[in-house]
Amino acid sequence: MSDYEQFITGINKKTGINLALYKEAQMKRRLTSLYEKKGYRDFVEFLLALERDRDLMNEFLDRMTINVSEFYRNGKRWEILRNKIFPLLLQSNKRLKIWSAACSTGEEPYTISMVLSEHLPLSQIQVLATDLDENVIQKAKLGLYPERSLAEVPNDVKMKYFIQEGSFFKVKDEIKRTVNYKKHNLLNDQYESNYDLIVCRNVMIYFTEEAKDQIYHKFSKALRPGGILFVGSTEQIFNPAQYGFEIEDTFFYRKK
Ligand SMILES: C[S@@+](CC[C@H](N)C(=O)[O-])C[C@H]1O[C@@H](n2cnc3c(N)ncnc32)[C@H](O)[C@@H]1O
């Protein structure tokens, strides 16, 4: 077994995260730079240290998960969601079941609620938001962001749903109340079913082809017929028909 394989086995035992399903060259590069900075010589030494040191484990999780996000990321896509996808979904149902998968620090699920609030009162909006990383979930619940995370937020939305606190912006409680956070690993955990909309953006790029294939099958099962999967702007699905998807718009797939 190579030292990276031993590392993968150890991390899987300790955390349930299977690094073998993440693109290897990219992951190795990120982790090598971390352990070298900390003064370890190889993956085996690094694993031993991680097993003992909770802070180092948190740093490792931070490095492997890449949590960058922003509100209204790729703004044009959110206009399609607002002007085309939500009206379509709301034709058949006024209570939408929505999942923001790999939500990071909360910008994405809060954006979903802000956009949907143009069609429905907030009291009728519920979004499930999940991530593998408990640290980002804590930050999401806090809902405090630097100005640069809001660069794409339309001005009226900024006025309506944020409170400025020094150089930070806080999401108002009325928006926070629409989002429920839960820890969830897309590779291991059960998926609920009957979703109208699943938003999963900017995480599939880190997975191997095999892992992506499994996840798209599971998303397809989790959507109701006619439900929509919204993916990231570099994450077009190659041959969507194999998962029972039709293209609804660029980066939006409809379950048949
Ligand atoms: C780059 S962020 C994307 C955030 C947001 N979806 C967006 O597009 O702005 C990727 C997120 O995927 C999460 N992640 C990585 N592996 C995961 C897994 N196996 N299951 C669930 N979330 C995962 C990371 O913790 C990180 O918060």
Provide an overview of this structure:
One of its GO terms (molecular function) is protein-glutamate O-methyltransferase activity. Its EC number is 2.1.1.80. This is protein-glutamate O-methyltransferase. One of its GO terms (biological process) is methylation. The radius of gyration is 19 Å and the shape is globular. It is α/β, with parallel strands linked by helices and 256 residues long. The model has no long low-confidence stretch (mean pLDDT 97). Helix 6 links the parallel strand 1 and strand 2. The chain folds into 2 domains: 63 residues; 181 residues, 3-Layer(aba) Sandwich (Rossmann fold), CATH 3.40.50. The N and C termini lie far apart (44 Å). Helix 1 runs parallel beside helix 3. The chain has 10 helices and 10 strands. The strands form 2 sheets. Strands 6-2-1-7-8-10-9 form a 7-stranded mixed sheet. A 3-stranded antiparallel sheet has the order 3-5-4. The structure holds S-adenosylmethionine. The site of S-adenosylmethionine has 21 residues, from loops.
